[in-house]
Amino acid sequence: MSDIIAECRKLNQMLKESEEYRKYVQARKNLRANKDLYKSLKELKRLNADIHNYGGENRFDELTKMMNDYDDLLHNAVVSDFLRAESRLSGLVREMYSETAKDIYFDLVSEDD
Fold it and tell me: For 14-30, how does the pLDDT look when each residue is reduced to its tens digit (9 = 90+)?
């Protein structure tokens, strides 16, 4: 197992050296330099999560209203650069996880077994 962990550490270092991660770190730094933008984006992300996790029957209407309310923020260059970089890094990490777990099947024993 130590060989697997050693390889994971190498992969971690490769990820940190990737263009996607470097761009994300720079975009995050740029966003955090403006406390108001950072605070507003955190608020938007919290609201978005609340709507997706706890939204009622009018989830589409709630999302539409949220997008309208935060339109200026979403069109801010610093915010859009951050969101784009975050999305690219997230996609890369998801793809890494998918490839790592490909063809690995793990079943838990349940009370029904």
Answer: 999 999 999 999 999 99
**38-73 per-residue burial string, b: 16 or more CB within 10 A, e: under 16:** bebbeebeebbeebeeeeeeeeeebeeebeeebeeb
Return the closest-CA partner of residue 24 out of 14, 13, 16, 35.
16
CA distance 22 to 60: 35
**Model-level pTM?**
0.82
Is the C-alpha dihedral spanning 75, 79, 81, 84 positive or negative?
A: negative
Q: Which string of b and e fits 89-109 if b means at least 16 CB within 10 Å?
A: beebeeeeeeeeeeeeeeeee
